[in-house]
Amino acid sequence: MIIQIMLVPFLALLYLALLFGIAAWGDRTGAMRMRLDGGWTYTLSLGVFVTAWTYFGAVGQASVAGVAFLPIFLGPTLAMFCSTFVLHKMLRIAKAYGITSIADFLAARYGKSSRLGGLATIVALVGLMPSVATQLKAVAMSLDLLVSSKAGAGISGIAQDTALYVAISLAFLSILFGTRQLDATERHQGLMLAIAFESLVKLLILLAVGCFVVWGIYQSPSSLFRQATDAGLADLLTFDGTGSTGADWLLMMLSAGLAFLFLPRQFQVSVIENKDPIHLARASWAFPAYLLLAGLFVLPLALASRLQGISDGDLAILHLPLLAGAHGLAIAVFLGGLSAAAAMVVVETLALATMVSNDLVVPILLRTGRLHVRSPQDPTRLVLATRRITIVLITTLGYVFFRLVGKDHGLADLGMISLVAAAQFGPPILLGMYWRDANRRGALVGLLLGFGTWIYTLLLPTFAVSGMLDPGFLAVGPWGIELLRPYALFAVDGLHPVAHATLWSLLLNVLGLVLGSLLTHSTGLDRTQAELFVDVWSRADATRMWRGEVRVRDLVGLLQRFIGHERTSVLFAADQQRLHPGSLLLDSRADARLVQTAERQLARAVGSASARALIGSMVKGELIGSQSVMEILDETSQLIRYSRELERKSAELERATADLRNANDRLRELDQMKDDFMATVSHELRTPLTSIRAFSEIVRDNPDLTEEERENFMGIVTRESERLTRLINDILDLSKIEAGRMRWRIMPVSLSTIVKDAASAVQPLLRERDAKLTMSLGDQDVLVHADPDRLQQVILNLISNACKFVNADSGHVHLSMEQDGDSVRLRVEDDGPGVPLEEREAIFGKFVQLSDGMTDKPEGTGLGLSISRQIIEAFGGSMHVEDSSLGGAAFVATLRPARPAAQTAIV
Amino acid sequence: MAKAPRTRDPLAEALRTQRIRRFVIAVTIIAFLCFTPPMFELVDRLAPGKLPIWLMLVWILSITCVAVAMERQSGERKGEAGRRSFDR
User: Fold this and answer.
1) Which of residues 67 through 106 in chain A touch B, CB cutoff 8 A?
2) E-strand spans in A781-906?
3) Do the beta carbons of residue A333 and residue A134 sit within 8 Å?
4) pLDDT tens by residue, A101-148
5) Å from A221 to nearest chain B CA?
6) Nearest Cβ partner of B63 from A82, A278, A288?
7) Which positions ≥6 away from A86 have C-beta within 8 Å?
């Protein structure tokens, strides 16, 4: 007996020492960069979900309700199938923003709210108390059974209570494992290796005991099932045998799935301890396979326990080998259970201790001034001490809960209470990851409602069942109000208490979150964090701007105190490379990116809310108040106004530049035209001058010329002189008109009179050309606005121009005049070759002359038509050329008629 | 699930990942439906006492389907990572 009493605790200590050794070895190999943290290790570490209450309690539950134990296996299975969506995003967020725990995740998502982080921590602390109690109960009962065969006989005095010693041992183990380092985001490779090992051990033991019972005791599964059917246990193989409704089943599956994702210890192993997201792909099927294997023999063991007449189903897994005399296997079963409990307590307390220190204690210390950025005290020791005290507190709470209610509830019942509590983190996290409008107030309201409902519908009834509350509380509700019965809230009756609590707590949680978010306004930081979380794939590297200044030296000092000199040096060395290659400028101003990096590093040690508070107090000395926000807004508005003004002036400048460019182009064009004009004028002047000079020299140098020759030559000189005179006159006219210096005497004039005078003037020319002039001027005289001299000049020019091109033998020039409404049209037509269509505009250019088809160069200066058009345009009219009915060209001048009253004008 | 040719084209890779994800969602939904009480009652009526076998069968089949899909995806990712490191 003494050997038995000593052997089992000794083996237990040996096994725990082995786990510790594995953890230490894992840490050493991690330091040596050996890879022991692949996908399989990650998958097995998720096995921490299978705790002592699943290990022992599933068989206990199955022995009375058949497959009713399965929702806690199937919920996580389905959750893992979806891990590429939910867990993957959680992982990305946690890694990107240095998240340290589930409370930190919530606080960071909802505007780095320390209040929400604190509430989440309290929910976790209280909610997981039953789960810790379950571990103590399971280990204590199994130890008692092995050592003294009296498990379940009742709760003994404290000094003789095995659970107390189990609690002390587990707390000590947790402190040893979990509080050796401060950085909560730094992976615990050794611990995870130990967890993976214990997951493998408990799985192998479950399979071993299953195989032993099915094949060792009952020879085959079919034999076992046949005997169970014969013994009237067939009900346990049907859904009716579960005693659950369909709603119970689905709600428990939902609760287990959510708890699997959001239990603090699961968050710790699946998110914080994850090294590579690719491991999720392996775990998404391998962990369900693990659960499948863990649950494979639960029902056969339950059937066997019923067949063997074991009354306490929770310890059936231990009783069965003992009854068969397999003491070694029984001890192994105990070690498996101890292993599951130890792993759960160590990881859970590690996660909870981080939450308590980062989201509860540090914010309070900062708020009360006990911890300050400029304080000389070393905060590392304070934080570690907080975590150690928290571990003791958690195990103490678990033990107290066990003492109070443990004897009245099965392992599975107590375990499920914690799962429903952990499921309360589901709505704010899931909605927070996918819904931008979910805000801090909504999350606070939802979590408070969910947590409150959980207390009311699950926790308080647990105390009532144990007789600590009035039994009427359960039967007729508080103050006799039946609608408030904890197991039938608002008359929703007929559900399993766990399913009932799941329904109401999650429903109110979601409603509170959604309505709270829709009915309240988000703060700026709330919105920013929402964007960062929802769009984590694209915004993970976004830099958040800090207002104010902080020196690099101050940041270095702060980080050294929290994360140590070595890591601070590494961090700043990288940043120094980016900012100041060459020398470290400690007194320079830290840019926004450096401040953000420092904040994230700090968040890894003390959580995002505390990190924000620490950095915020250093950067600004105080929180930004509404006045400061208004100032920022004013500055921003001012900047926007300046920006718009600049944009407007820039547009004006662009327009002015375009105008100047066009003007410059026009000037270049005019300059070119001027050059062309000067070249043409020079050429036109030189031609007659050359003739004059040549013929004058002939006359001067040849005194023996005949009189006839002399007259001929002098005639040429005279004509060329006249031509030169005309040319100079035309150029002068043109330059005056173009320069706007021409003095016009515009008045109403009789067009027919002007035409007739012009016709008389050109008679010699007509005769010279053998051309006839006909006119059709109408019956009534027409008055037009014009300068009479210049108008006559135009008509003479047009007639003489026509004379140049008429047929040599029977030339015909026709002049006509017609009034059409507000215009008077004067047509000068000839029967010459006409003007080609493509040259009808060009001929009004300067020095442009068309050949008459007989000579290469017609008479004239080439300026006549240009001057004529400009004169007509000066009178407000226009001039163009078109085909004539005579077969040649028709020059049409359109003039403005004058009022009849002006008929008295001078002509 | 149709087998897509392996390629380094990022668009094709993204489409393949999407296809695998859709497949996993479909498996999850079907498994969930098979794990619901109406299905259990049907099984109990058609094959009394065989509910545990049905549950295990669905569980194993769904795990196998997800395993095939996810391992193919992660195998390709590892291959890509290997090729990239080799390219360097």
Assistant:
1) 67, 70, 74, 77-78, 81-82, 84-85
2) 783-786, 811-820, 823-830, 878-883, 889-895
3) no
4) 899 899 989 988 888 989 999 999 999 999 989 888 888 888 888 877
5) 12
6) A288
7) A79, A261, A430, A433
